[in-house]
Write a structure and sequence with these properties.
alpha/beta; 5-stranded parallel β-sheet; Rossmann fold
């Protein structure tokens, strides 16, 4: 199996080499806690936008700050392992910040994707990508698919 979980520094070098060889780099990010069909569909659509899909994955501490102290349900090592084994994902890197701005600024992807529930002007790092000649492209999400709704369903089922 290819080593798709890489450090930020490794990723920077890999992305530059891929760009030099003419590859289009697509970037997305998220928590991806309790992977579901909506995630898989989203990542497949993201991969269709270019040659290489890079996924910035929130660390456990970052997820807890964003989603609450009881999250994530699945730890970062397991989430990274699962995501790195999806056909659509070429590289995964962890980031501990609350947003991926620093990571995006480091690799400068050609295309930044996020769910269409975000306005383009609100997508973190979009300005950096556009300023460097890239684009920001929203992706339609599968309706009624979210980790939060899965967690709520589990809570109701086991009361």
């Amino acid at each position: 199996m290819k080593n798709v979980l890489v450090s930020r520094e490794e990723l920077k070098n890999i992305v530059q080499s891929l760009k030099d060889s003419g590859k289009t780099i697509v970037f997305t990010n998220g928590c991806f806690d309790i992977l579901h069909a909506g995630h898989v569909d989203y990542l497949a659509k993201a991969k269709e936008k270019g040659d290489i899909l890079v996924l910035g994955l929130n660390t456990d501490s970052s997820v807890a700050r964003l989603k609450g102290e009881l999250r994530p349900i699945i730890n970062e090592e397991e989430r990274a392992f699962i995501l790195s084994n999806l056909r659509s994902v070429d590289y995964v890197t962890l980031f501990d910040e609350d947003t991926p701005l620093e990571l995006i600024s480091t690799i400068i992807p050609d295309i930044l994707v996020k769910g269409a529930d975000y306005a383009i002007k609100d997508i973190v790092g979009g300005d950096v990508v556009i300023k460097n000649g890239g684009s920001v492209e929203p992706i339609e999400l599968v309706v009624n698919q979210s980790t939060s709704s899965i967690v709520e369903k589990i809570k109701i089922s086991y009361k």
